[in-house]
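STRUCTURE:
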């Protein structure tokens, strides 16, 4: 095991940076303890990797700084960063396989991004209507 590990997770515009070190199971998202983090749906999403490996999660402290995007994008970026950090900290192939089997996005950031806006439209796909009369 290594002393401190830094990892990142991304989802849409959200970027999460996790720092993991030996400790007592304290998890903080933007300096807010995970127990009081809201909304509840985002908290449950973030806690998935911690619930899959509770004995490992209770032996480390995790600090996550997340910026950009919306609430659920930040939650998914955070859970990816936490899962990556746990795998790197414990150097455990079984843990990695379990995370991948549960949900691939726990370890692999989602590469999908917004399409760029095109001319003659209000967005990426919408175009001004044509009228021939």
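SEQUENCE:
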């Amino acid at each position: 095991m290594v002393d401190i590990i830094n990892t990142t997770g991304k989802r849409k515009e959200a970027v999460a940076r996790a720092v993991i070190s030996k400790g007592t199971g304290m998890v903080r998202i933007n300096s807010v303890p995970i127990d009081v983090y809201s909304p509840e749906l985002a908290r449950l999403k973030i806690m998935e990797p911690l619930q899959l490996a509770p004995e490992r999660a209770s032996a480390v402290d995790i600090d996550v700084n997340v910026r950009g995007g919306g609430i659920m994008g930040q939650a998914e970026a955070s859970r990816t960063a936490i899962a990556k950090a746990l795998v790197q900290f414990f150097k455990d192939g079984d843990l990695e396989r379990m995370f991948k089997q549960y949900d691939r996005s726990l370890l692999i950031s989602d590469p999908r991004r917004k399409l760029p806006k095109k001319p003659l439209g209000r967005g990426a796909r919408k175009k001004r209507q044509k009228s021939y009369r």
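REMARK: The radius of gyration is 18 Å.
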